Amino acid sequence: MSDSLTTLIGKVQNILGDATGTYFTTAIVTAAIRQALSDWNLRAPNFAAVTIAAVANQYEYELSDEDANAIELLDVLKQGPNNNEIDVSLDYDAYVEDERVFFRLRRPLTTADTIIVRYITYHTINGLDSQTESTLPTYYDQAMVDGGAFFSIMIRATSRIETINLSQQQSDNYREIAGAFAQAFALRLAEAQRKRQAPVSEPDPRAWNDAYHNWGQ
Q: What is residue 81's predicted lDDT score, i.e. its pLDDT?
């Protein structure tokens, strides 16, 4: 099970040598982890899928009814017969209203059909912003620690920048340490991005085999 916010805060404070939270308080580290997760979600979100029973002669469906955390729709397919044959991409139009995700089929299906919807959600951390589940794989916990440490230093440095007696050496130390954690976070994020390949069923023929494919022949 991946780490909760409380566990991540403790790890960040420990890696920064401030186990008591004197300088890197719970509030600072929480804000830092929130920023790290936000950056992660923008570049390596979670891919999800749901099946919806088709309604006869219905064109419009609301994905947010199936998953309120849906952010962006990736593809809509008709499930193959017996659940083991090739799924077929459907023609559809996606749109968002009131921050809810919808799609409209170009041609309706029958009650015998099952729709597969592939989409994007954002990862969550248990305890952060009222979330109750940590969805990042456990092996990315260290990424949140590295990112949390980097942003914690940046927040701490920002709060100190106008201090009258702040020495240049102290600023340089912040910058050097922050750079190390920033690089570690970036490397783990780059690894995650390499793995973020949207699922596919078969090559999508809609771009080349449309109604005008043999036009003029």
A: 78
CB 37 within 8 A of CB 144: yes
- pTM exceeds cut of 0.90: no
List residues bridging with 199 in a β-sheet. Answer: none
Count the Cβ atoms, other than its own, within 10 Å of residue 195.
Answer: 8
DSSP string, 106-131: SS---TT-EEEEEEEE----TTSTT-
Where is 192: in which H helix or E strand?
A: helix 168-195
Stretches where the chain sits below pLDDT 50 are: 217
The CB density around residue 146, as the number of other CB atoms within 10 Å, is 24
181, with CB counted inside 10 A (0-12, 13-18, 19+), is buried
Q: Compute CA 43 distance to the chain's CA centroid, rounded to the nearest angstrom.
A: 7
